[in-house]
Specification:
The protein is an all-alpha fold and 178 residues long. The protein has 7 helices and no strands. It is globular.
Length: 178
């Protein structure tokens, strides 16, 4: 259990107190700021674990599997909470979560065929935009409502662009199926 893997596990552990803090206060008051801090810390572990793993050659099978899973759990948990708090339209949540399922399934089929699908630049930009959207929606600052809405639509668009990018770049996975 090296440092990058510990950071991945920490990100998964932080999901529970994050959700509790966000929903306990219905996204308002001190619990909102606690939830925001927990989400930011968890998001930073995502950036750190990958950098450390690559820099010190600490890439493991556990990390390859659990890092993207931890990311998906964190973002999807936040999105579902934000729908519950009526800050995120349900359709946007469905688009983002559906994309995650499609890509996960796509990667599973590729893996069964001995193909590894690496994260793309579009996927990384998508993740950053989604995390920025979640941060702005948790903060719920009225003066930033136009920016928050713009980031939401940008995140949704990047989600769709990254889906199309993954499928086009890896269409041999689908074409190889009988």
């Amino acid at each position: 259990m090296n440092l990058p893997n510990k950071l991945t596990v920490l990100r998964m552990v932080l999901i529970v107190p994050f959700v509790i803090a966000l929903l306990a206060g219905r996204g308002e008051g001190a619990s909102r700021w606690i939830a925001l801090a927990l989400f930011i810390i968890a998001s930073l572990t995502d950036m750190l674990d990958g950098q450390i793993a690559r820099k010190y050659n600490l890439i493991t099978d556990f990390g390859k599997f659990m890092d993207p899973l931890a990311d998906k759990l964190l973002v999807c948990s936040a999105l579902i909470c934000l729908v519950d708090l009526r800050r995120l339209p349900t359709l946007i949540c469905i688009i983002i979560i559906a994309r995650e399922f499609v890509i996960s399934g796509f990667r599973l089929v590729a893996s069964d065929n001995g193909i590894v699908i690496a994260a793309s630049m579009w996927g990384k930009v998508k993740t950053v935009s989604q995390m920025a959207m979640v941060i702005l929606m948790i903060a719920n600052i009225p003066q930033l409502s136009i920016l928050t809405t713009a980031i939401m639509y940008i995140a949704c668009a990047l989600t769709l662009v990254s889906l199309v990018d993954y499928i086009l770049k890896n269409r041999q996975v689908i074409l190889a199926q009988k």
